[in-house]
UniProtKB/TrEMBL annotation, chain A:
The chain crosses the membrane at residues 44-65, 71-88, 95-118, 138-164, 217-237, 249-269. It comes from the Bacteria. This is Glycine/betaine ABC transporter. It is found in: Cell membrane. The keyword Phosphoprotein does not apply. One of its GO terms (molecular function) is carnitine transmembrane transporter activity. InterPro entries: MetI-like, MetI-like_sf.
Automatic annotation (TrEMBL), chain B:
InterPro entries: AAA+_ATPase (IPR003593), ABC_osmolyte_uptake_ATP-bind (IPR051921), ABC_transporter-like_ATP-bd (IPR003439), ABC_transporter-like_CS (IPR017871), CBS_dom (IPR000644), CBS_dom_sf (IPR046342), Gly-betaine_transp_ATP-bd (IPR005892), P-loop_NTPase (IPR027417). Coiled coil: none annotated. Pfam families: ABC_tran, CBS. It catalyses: a quaternary ammonium(out) + ATP + H2O = a quaternary ammonium(in) + ADP + phosphate + H(+). PANTHER family: GLYCINE BETAINE/PROLINE BETAINE TRANSPORT SYSTEM ATP-BINDING PROTEIN PROV, GLYCINE BETAINE_PROLINE BETAINE TRANSPORT SYSTEM ATP-BINDING PROTEIN PROV. This is Quaternary amine transport ATP-binding protein. It comes from Heyndrickxia camelliae.
Length: 282, 415
């Protein structure tokens, strides 16, 4: 250790910065907090209106419509298993948490991705932030999230969004940049405005890549459910967490299987939804 | 059509593109007459196009030809500012598009100048019809109108019935037709075609060239066509600009370029040209010996005797071709006292003077007398003999005239 250089008090600076944020933007955080909480609760309540068997059939039919028969059958049986294992309500909570996180990721991530694809400056700023979001250990930002949003589902959503949003942004940028240069030239040569080029050419052509990004975001959000449960988010993660802390291996595996089923169903449905688009997209 | 009374559609003056960082210094060196290599060494900047100057007349097909890396694609992209010139002017209908605002430029691109691309550059997520109407759609033209115009232009390129297909369902040739239809749908004055047929296989390419020429005949657009293929340039170009290392080295009609290559580079370029696809009957024909029909068989016989030939073409007073007569037949006619008309061989082979040599081979090899060359009113212009055809193909200049006006030359020639 170098003693002749004073230690940088970065930790202290960050502590006071977090304090300052909490006291200054407390109102804003409360607003965000109640907004997110309402949307998660709302989703759970709406999904809870259906008897498990009805919702299972609906999701099964959705899978059939968007994908193929085998996946629909898997969906149907998988959700039945979750119900019969007794994790139906926990599963609804997890689904609501994941969907809320993903919707936020999409609403923020896609415009940010589009902007970054158009302006090199923005891209240069956004890319390192994304690196941060993906590699910084989740526990590090879980704590300040509790400061800002209290214990419960909201810091869980925030942690999931931070971890899950980067693929959506990255793949939006990639998808737009991958549109072949001669096609861009052609659209320019006919006198397109920037908005026309974006809406009529770049975004439609980037759509499969953007969908792959959203699919990745969903999977990452699901992978965060156990961590989210540590700050009080209810759901399958909570079951796993409790089982692990109480050394109930069987229960842990049960809840874990439920998570895997949800993950596979969401993955297959979103993956195929991107491909199902009319031909020519490839 | 003399060049003086043609309207200038597009004028390029001093257009230069320098790629790299030190463009200011490079352009200074360039105006001091330094070469591309020297400038690259001194500044690291690459000269894409060096002070190009040319004019394109209304309704002509102007071909810019050069090998890859000669700057032809860069040059054509500066004509609609897909690439910004470092300096220079591009005047379309006397308006300098280089100084235009984005808005004005967009308008020019929408209304006056369209482009066809080497790799077609169709939008894969749109149907053929939607691709064709793209240019109209972004102008905010009503759906009904743009459908109609797009359909019309698809019909022009022979793609009726394919409206609802997607580009990847079509062959390369058909895709490029869509590219052409898309460019035509805007009804532009000028078509820029960047190696438009280079990605197609040779047979399809030839068909497309023919169709382009037909379209050009019927629509009269000004076409600026980029190619690296000399045969293509010679086939479709009214005038050709040859490029090398960013410089335009020669501009002229195909004939001027072939006959008077301005330097060694052009010479080398054209040395492999298949002359049979460039030279026409008019280039190699000789003055025809003819006899007017009312002069009678005796005169015909005398002429043949004096010239040492065994048959002679018979024409009327307006020099229109009637047929040919052999010495034997003329002799019989003279003895029996009948007119030349009665012994005339009416079924003679005649071709217009624009006929390419490649199309002459068969006729010349099977005809028993030299093939007659006639104008559009069937007037005798000259004859093509085997020796001249073979001589011209061998590249022997003495058999090739640069103009089609005949000089009296060797007459003693029996086929």
């Amino acid at each position: 250790m170098n003693k002749w250089l004073p230690r940088i008090p970065l930790a202290d600076w960050i502590d006071s910065f977090v304090d300052w944020l909490t006291s200054t933007f407390g109102g804003l955080f409360d607003g965000v907090s109640s907004g997110v909480e309402n949307s998660v609760d709302g989703m759970v309540n709406v999904l809870g209106l259906f008897p498990p068997i009805v919702l299972t059939i609906i999701i099964g039919l959705l899978a059939l419509w968007l994908t193929k028969k085998s996946i629909a059958v898997f969906t149907f049986i998988g959700f039945l298993i979750i119900d019969y294992l007794g994790y139906w309500d926990a599963m609804l909570n997890t689904l609501a948490l994941v969907l809320t996180s993903v919707i936020i990721s999409i609403v923020v991530g896609i415009p940010l991705g589009i902007w970054s694809s158009q302006k090199q400056m923005v891209r240069k700023i956004v890319t390192p932030i994304l690196d941060f979001m993906q590699t910084m250990p989740a526990f590090v930002y879980l704590l300040p999230a509790i400061f800002f949003f209290n214990i419960g589902v909201v810091p869980g959503v925030v942690a999931s969004v931070i971890f899950a949003m980067p693929p959506t942004i990255r793949l939006t940028i990639l998808g737009i940049q991958q549109v072949p240069a001669d096609i861009i030239e052609a659209t320019e040569s006919f006198g397109s405005t920037t908005a026309q080029r974006l809406m009529k050419v770049q975004l439609p052509l980037a759509m499969p890549t953007i969908m792959a990004g959203i699919n990745q975001s969903i999977m990452l959000a699901l992978s965060m459910v156990v961590i989210a449960s540590m700050v009080g988010a209810p759901g399958l993660g909570e079951e796993v967490y409790r089982a692990v802390t109480q050394l109930k291996i069987g229960v842990g595996v049960e809840a874990g299987i439920a998570i895997v089923i949800v993950a596979i169903v969401l993955d297959r449905i979103t993956q195929n939804a991107g491909k199902r688009k009319k031909r020519g997209n490839v | 059509m003399t060049e003086e009374n043609k309207k200038i559609k597009l004028k390029v003056s001093n257009v230069t593109k320098i790629f790299g960082k030190h463009t200011k210094k490079a352009s200074q060196l360039l105006s001091n007459g330094k070469s591309k290599q020297e400038i690259l060494k001194l500044t690291g900047a690459t000269i894409g196009v060096n002070q190009a100057n040319f004019e394109v007349y209304d309704g002509e097909i102007f071909v810019i030809m050069g090998l890859s890396g000669s700057g032809k694609s860069t040059l054509v992209r500066m004509l609609n500012r897909l690439i910004e010139p470092t300096y220079g002017e591009v005047l379309i209908d006397n308006e300098n598009i280089i100084s235009m605002s984005k808005e004005q430029l967009r308008n020019v691109r929408r209304k006056k100048i369209s482009m066809v691309f080497q790799k077609f550059a169709l939008l894969p997520h749109r149907t053929i019809l939607q691709n064709t109407e793209y240019g109209l759609e972004i102008q905010g033209i009503a759906k009904q109108t743009r459908h109609e115009k797009a359909l019309q232009s698809l019909k022009l390129v022979g793609l009726e019935g394919y409206e609802d297909q997607y580009p990847d369902q079509l062959s390369g040739g058909m895709q490029q037709r869509v590219g052409l239809a898309r460019a035509l749908a805007n009804n532009p004055d000028i078509l820029l075609m960047d190696e438009a047929f280079s990605a197609l296989d040779p047979l399809i390419r030839k068909d497309m060239q023919d169709e382009l020429l037909e379209l050009h005949d019927s629509m009269g657009k000004t076409i600026i066509f980029i190619t690296h293929d000399l045969d293509e340039a010679l086939r479709i170009g009214d005038r050709i600009a040859l490029m090398k290392d960013g410089n335009i080295v020669q501009i002229g009609t195909p004939e001027e370029i072939l006959m008077n290559p301005s330097n060694e580079y052009v010479e080398r370029f054209i040395e492999d040209v298949d002359f049979s696809k460039v030279l026409t009957a008019g280039h190699i024909m000789k003055r025809a010996e003819t006899v007017q029909v009312e002069k009678g068989p005796r005169v015909a016989l005398t002429l043949m005797k004096n010239l040492g030939i065994s048959s002679i073409y018979v024409v009327d007073k307006q020099n229109r071709l009637l047929g040919a007569v052999t010495a034997q037949n003329a002799k019989d006619a003279a003895e029996n006292g009948v007119s030349l008309l009665d012994v005339l061989e009416g079924e003679v082979t005649s071709v217009p003077s624009e006929t390419l040599l490649t199309d002459l081979f068969e006729m010349v090899s099977t005809a028993s007398i030299p093939v007659a060359v006639v104008d559009d009113r069937n007037r005798m212009r000259g004859i093509v003999i085997r020796g001249a055809l073979i001589g011209a193909l061998a590249g022997n200049d003495s058999y090739i005239h640069q103009s089609e006006i005949m000089e009296p030359s060797v007459l003693k020639e029996v086929n």
